């Protein structure tokens, strides 16, 4: 069966020992109160909460799924009560703005909390995740009046939030959306249209649901420059700020999906629903995107979290399942077979999972810290450099976490053999739940295009140059550190490869407009593997200072990463260099 | 929505033009009557049958699944009637021994038929596939009396067959199984024990179910050398050969699985069930394995078939779905967006799928022909060489078809974006259905171990040497052919890489008993990519002789394979060379 314990030791190692996040927090007024003791205590409590409250609901939630009946959505048994406890204990306020009742925890701590949530119960985790997204957007762009009316209720968990972007014919291409917003005399708008794939669009865990809706004003320019953002509550707040009159928005149905079955994915029909604009007219996409870096990282973490629970379950199973004998002779004298963890291939599977999970955890923490600097730093140069790092690394984190997370859940299922295919064992659910993370919040192909296009070629590789300087600077500073010796050469070669391949991408993109789109996914993968190599090197240098099992295991997993996973970067570079000519040459009727 | 048409043009191109299978058939008495006209007509009819009879049942069959009630299993609506039609039209007899009512069609034709079956309805396809496996085993090893009594009913589709190997504690490691067989005075045996994961163990489509069961005799030696094989019918045949008295075997439950939900996966309880031995006592595994090469190829083809239907559906969707604009400017002047097939990344996805599907189809046909030679050739040298090729390539085909097939179904789902995650669109079912093919019939890790251990290191690379000689011989013979020019250098480099990596595997395996198990999966993948490169080269040489769209498309897809997929071989070789030391060094408690 699937098993999960919050990986607190590794989380603390990364947060405290590798990155010394508390030093960063202390340096910025907004986070100065977050000490190492506090963050350790919070991780402890979060671990207990997800293990005891959310993980036990995961398997049954998948089997039962959500129910739709005449516009009402019922979440799986136990979800509603668990959400009440979750909210009462303050978790819904975790990273909210303290001015409106949030706890103001830094993103570098939130990413570890979010990872635990997705490990324990990905369907459940999505309800607060979407609310977080909505509050971030409101906090950044809404009027003070809207913030006062909505943020406290959202932070308290009494209400929840959604993001309404997609329409049946308009997904990646939001410019062609049809939902309309007609202004009223009182400054409000009437919103009409149909939105699909709305996570938490309707459910039974809160008193009110606040939709952030993209729509077009009557005089809006065509395309993505004509999109505005609106707040549309399910119930209009009454004079006391409590849910009052029902608004013209309702769920038309829920989707029957491959996974995340406990998460209600709704078709939402808006019929002259009353809403208020957030930010400026026709600037809706920009408003949405200011919070996208936060949300994309969090959705990436869904892949990480599911990879972790799959790894832990597979490692436990591999220690217990007796089958065959070790290549070097009998290991389990008393039994009729050895535990399958003696077999090289099982170890290859487990170490692949673990190297990807821990590399990912390091990157999520690193990007979390850069997001904290980008938001809270009072040093302009530090803030700007952090913003650039976030812009570059966010699409990588989202796509690479989820692609490698999916691979990881598939490997974990494989460790269980036939039992992995049977629902009651729980391993196949992780595969199904993880699969969506590669698709939503911008498909991973779109993430790759954002990276290779907007973040690399359109600025002539400026962000990449800064990133390479970060990595080379770190290598120089740590040239004589134990832990780096065995892998230094491979790391330098990987960094060189990223540099030369970026130059090749820029060169070919100058000649052929199809180059970026045709190479983007391979380029993002290459970037991901090289970034993990750097972060593994950082972990190895820190681990080499310890004389304990944890440190020795870390060094072994790190060496495995360099020997058995990093070589993939070489193949990716070769594929990118091939260019777009062949794949663009086939007539579309011949596919 | 998912769409499927049997890919007859490509099948005929491979079978007739690339491999000229009809020349082989004509050269052997057992297959001499199979002409090109006949095989073309059979493929036509098979295509119509799967498109009209089986594909329409696929989606609903997944939603409904199988039902279990008090020992009875009901298949999804329509399956029973479809199976009746299927059997009446002779498809159950396709490759059966003509002496007992089979049609004696060669395996090289059967592989294409099997691919269509799995494209159209993988759950349905498994019922006749298991029966095929049982009849092959009976035909090769059972007494004439058993053959006479059972083969005609199995070929006619009145009865079906199963393979009962796995027990709850005994999967890969069959040596520790507990099912017992106690001899009776009349030469029969009483079988008792529990078998799990039995495909088609109980269902409602036939009058009788014939189980082939592995069990241990009372005096059997320990381990895999003490396993015997028994035939155990659900109903004991009466004096007329019709189903008579109920035997002591019954389904205890069915599994609730990730996919192939229309296929009944049963727990089978044997309680003093009457059975008859097949072959010699304690030689049951050997008997089972003589038909494994046939069955493993067929199960591999499940991956191919699902990859093909996923590709076709994704290509259709990509031509229809309008979203965004081409990098080179507007392509669809009248519409508000271009079809997504204009985007380089969508083409990369589609061409990856197609290059893997068509490479796989070529390999399945190639191995099918070698199986035909191995079974029917009257030339001893040809027969022996074919047996060696089959031994080497079968684990590759099973694992590589299904691993790449799974990748392909995942990519096809990705092309659909969010719609790919919604059940009604059908794309996620292919992913779930395909996933089992990597696990059952020997996990892909076990296939890799069979290749790298038994088929390579244990005979000092003899089979590989012969394979490399085949490939190099072909390259020499075709050195001046058009079609080979653009990829010749890459092909030769790939063959050299396989040779040097095999030498490295042999060298390290001599030093370290863990080398084989720790590198097997990467070695199999490397072998698969190099083998596809050779087969793509063969297809390209043949295609270059045509002056039509089909030929030009083939050449383009082939170039794509060499540019964008074959480079993976280099990374795999590097990973293999790293050796097993790192991954074996971690204490099992530290995972």
Automatic annotation (TrEMBL), chains A, B:
Keywords linked to the UniProt accession: FAD, Flavoprotein, Oxidoreductase
Catalytic activity: 3-(methylsulfanyl)propanoyl-CoA + oxidized [electron-transfer flavoprotein] + H(+) = 3-(methylsulfanyl)acryloyl-CoA + reduced [electron-transfer flavoprotein]
SUPFAM superfamilies: Acyl-CoA dehydrogenase C-terminal domain-like, Acyl-CoA dehydrogenase NM domain-like
InterPro entries linked: Acyl-CoA_dh-like_C_dom, Acyl-CoA_Oxase/DH_mid-dom, Acyl-CoA_Oxase/DH_mid-dom_sf, AcylCo_DH-like_C, AcylCo_DH/oxidase_C, AcylCoA_DH/ox_N, AcylCoA_DH/ox_N_sf, AcylCoA_DH/oxidase_NM_dom_sf
Domain Acyl-CoA oxidase/dehydrogenase middle: 163-272
Metal-binding is among the record's keywords: no
EC code: 1.3.99.41
Molecular function terms, GO-annotated: flavin adenine dinucleotide binding; oxidoreductase activity, acting on the CH-CH group of donors
Domain of life of the organism encoding this protein: Bacteria
Domain named Acyl-CoA dehydrogenase/oxidase N-terminal: residues: 41-158
Residues of the Acetyl-CoA dehydrogenase-like C-terminal domain: 467-587
Domain Acyl-CoA dehydrogenase/oxidase C-terminal span(s) in chain numbering: 282-452
Cofactor(s) essential for the protein: FAD
Main enzyme class: oxidoreductase
Keyword Flavoprotein: yes
Function, as annotated: Involved in the assimilation of dimethylsulphoniopropionate (DMSP), an important compound in the fixation of carbon in marine phytoplankton, by mediating the conversion of 3-(methylthio)propanoyl-CoA (MMPA-CoA) to 3-(methylthio)acryloyl-CoA (MTA-CoA).
Family: Belongs to the acyl-CoA dehydrogenase family.
Name of the protein described by the UniProt record: 3-methylmercaptopropionyl-CoA dehydrogenase
Species this chain originates from: Alloalcanivorax marinus
Biological classification of the source: Bacteria, Pseudomonadati, Pseudomonadota, Gammaproteobacteria, Oceanospirillales
